[in-house]
Amino acid sequence: MSDALHPAVAGAQPSQRAEKNPEAPLFEGDYRDRFERVLSRYPNKQAALLPVLNMAQEIRGWLSPQTIARVAELLELTPAYVRSVASFYTMFSTRPVGKHVIQVCTGIGCDLCGAQAVVDKLLEATGTRIGEVSKDGKYTVVEVECLGACGFPTVVQVNDRVFENVKAEDVEGLLAELD
Amino acid sequence: MAYPYADPRETRLLSKHFGEKDAIGIDGWIERGGYRALKKALGSMSPDEVTGVVKESGLRGRGGAGFPAGLKWSFMPKDDRPRYLVCNADESEPGTFKDREIMRWTPHQLLEGCIIAGYAIQAEHCYVYIRGEFVDIVRILNGAVGEAYERGYLGRDILGSGFDLELTVHLGAGAYIAGEETGLLNSLEGRRAEPRIKPPFPAQRGAFNMPTTVNNVETLASVAHIVMNGADWYRQWGTEKSPGTKLFSCCGHLQRPGNYEVSLDFNLRDLVYELCGGPPEGRALLAVIPGGSSVPIMKADEIDCDVSYEGIEAAGSMLGSGGLIAMDESTCMVRAVRKMVEFYAHESCGQCTNCREGTAWLAKILQRIERGAGREEDIPLLLDISANMAGRTICPLSDSAAVPVVSSIQKFEHEYLAHIRDGTCTAVR
Ligand SMILES: Cc1cc2nc3c(=O)[nH]c(=O)nc-3n(C[C@H](O)[C@H](O)[C@H](O)COP(=O)(O)O)c2cc1C
Ligand code: SF4
User: Fold this and answer.
1) Neighbour tally for B2: CB within 10 Å
2) I need a labelling partner for B334 at 20 to 30 A (CA). Which of A79, B87, B107, B277 fits?
3) Min Cα–Cα distance to chain B from A82, Å
4) CATH architecture observed for domain A100-178
5) Is the ipTM above a cut-off of 0.90?
6) What is the CATH number of domain B245-328?
7) Residue from B76, B170, B187, B216 to probe ligand 1 pocket by mutation (most atoms less than 8 Å from CB)
8) Cβ–Cβ contacts within 10 Å for residue B273, how many?
9) pLDDT-based confidence at B1, cuts 50/70/90?
10) What radius of gyration do chain A's Cα atoms show?
């Protein structure tokens, strides 16, 4: 992985959330290398915070207090500061999430074209309420603001995959495709 | 494959190669004339000459505010501090999805623009701040950046000109307010994306306290064309005050939603009815929001104007980001406004009381009106809260949140009253 990764894009790898280990070592091996490449692109360590949190989340699945403390240590920041930044952004999970995080766009473009029905169907099919982890640990369904693909409603993003033009009747098929 | 709905009435400058898979990679892009403008700029023009031609072209910022790009560049101080170029690829204004398509189909078009702009302002580093949700687009952009480095279009001594430029792709993490340029700069520095008080403007103190220019993706993508072909060429399209072409992302109740690029003197009504095919069969158009959810709602009979900045303004709205949202008669206007306001309530960074509290109250009141539990006094109350939100905060998000409320009450008050008085909705289902 990291051999091909140019430092210019080392911090910009869409994080893949499936199959993560909350105990995995942070920033060792290839990830250490990626971490160094990210740092090399900014005039100070703090600026690497978002990319480094993104990487930490990719490795561990979510940002636990321990993970946040480790990131803080590496970047010479305080854990409280890192937490305050992480909690500002919706893509950072400070709670455990399902293997598949299903984000449904309910912004105005998708809402006009039936996003609510897609959300309802997803909740029914996964047996969850918004933001919950399903009993089998597989799914978390969340409503998100405009995903910037309004011409192709409804837009559903699952981890690092995007599905466009999703209708309520497509939900079963979409879930089947995830496994 | 023709791009979803290409139309001969479009002027496809930026979108000419949308839909062509072969245009994505660097070889395909060079075959289509890519990087010739860069060679021209670095080989035969001084940085000031590049700024000059962009100034003369009249190109205005496509991120929403419409500020002249060349003029913005000319504000950059010429001292020996490091200078930065930041490309705003955070695209998250509801209804807007044009920058995504530029990067998806023509990532090198953007990179070439970034390098030329970087040269004009003599930047040492360009950060492309792209919203983290754009996972598939990020991969395409990353690939293009790698290619550009490999070919020597980025890095040291670009094309033997002596000009050095590094470029880094920086992922956002989900925050609309990171699209506001100073919120973006804070986010880039590893902070919460809270907008800064201006002045100082980014040109004086921007990223890492250094002189910085922030430009939108579409603005930067236009630059190579202007440098290659000249200001007069660019001015053959559009109007005196709004030269050139613009991408409109069209969504909502339309037969052919998608991106259309038109000359800025194109007729808005034609865009909606001809290019986008109007509302679905058997339904009448109710309203149009021409420039993203932050601009005033127009009634269906108000859209016979040209799409220039001044044309849409004269018709009572704003060009904004060019994110056009069409609503047909099946729309519950109260619900639509409630959705937009909830967006702003969610995305308010919370620094300013009027915005933080105002957006929450607007949402609460709209929710109760929609449920049929509203009171007649709620309408003046909504207007009163809105008035207190405009022009009093660090950034214009607060103003934006009030816009759909005020404009919908002005134009669709009967829809509110139907909910309040009769517990009914005027939407045709
Ligand atoms: C709340 C808010 C959100 C914004 N979001 C974006 C955005 O997503 N993309 C963008 O290019 N500009 C956005 N802007 C405008 C930027 O602040 C800035 O004006 C723009 O990036 C400048 O580039 P331009 O001159 O090339 O348009 C936003 C502004 C505000 C107030
Ligand atoms: S207006 Fe709203 S979003 Fe803008 S700085 Fe103030 S609180 Fe934050």
Assistant:
1) 9
2) B277
3) 9
4) 3-Layer(aba) Sandwich (3.40)
5) yes
6) 3.10.20.600
7) B216
8) 17
9) very low
10) 17
